[in-house]
Design a protein that fits this description.
With 139 residues, the protein is an alpha+beta fold. It is built from 3 helices and 6 strands; from the N terminus they run ααββαββββ. Helices cover 30% and strands 36% of the residues. It has a 6-stranded antiparallel beta sheet with strand order 1-2-6-5-4-3, covered by helices on one side.
Length: 139
């Protein structure tokens, strides 16, 4: 009984502690995404509040910037469309060829990354890049 209990509880615990979660590949991807020039640009009137990069236990890597911003959502979107194009990001399209609003894509560190602009809400504008090595689709 003790051996069965050890196998049922111990092996998953060892897996979780040694294999599951973020590692060097995700750290490298996060650094590459955080270095994308588009995250360092802001529309006129925006003040950077914070920059971040993280990886969750499902290996989704995120890098982004939040700004204090009281300007127009249209102005912010226009700014990031231009900044994204200048940094080689392309509008994300559906299978039917339609553009997905506020979403851009490009390869970063060997995987497809997605740049997303969250419309200004309550004075905060957020620009974020998300990717994972499993090539999940975003936005």
């Amino acid at each position: 009984m003790a051996v069965a209990g050890l196998l049922l509880v111990g092996l998953p615990a060892v897996y979780f502690l040694t294999v599951y979660g973020c590692g060097e590949e995700e750290d490298r991807l996060a650094e590459a995404m955080a270095g994308e020039a588009v995250l360092g640009t802001a529309p006129e009137g925006a003040d950077r509040a914070s920059r971040y990069q993280e990886c969750d236990d499902d290996l989704f890597v995120t890098a982004g910037t939040q700004y204090r911003y009281a300007g127009s959502p249209k102005t912010a979107l226009r700014h990031y469309r231009e900044a994204a194009r200048a940094d080689s990001w392309r509008p994300r399209t559906t299978a039917d060829g339609e553009k997905v609003p506020k979403c851009f894509t490009k390869p970063v560190d060997g995987t497809t990354a997605y740049l997303y602009l969250e419309s200004p809400a309550k004075g905060v504008l957020q620009v974020e890049i998300v990717a994972d090595r499993a090539q999940s689709e975003w936005c």
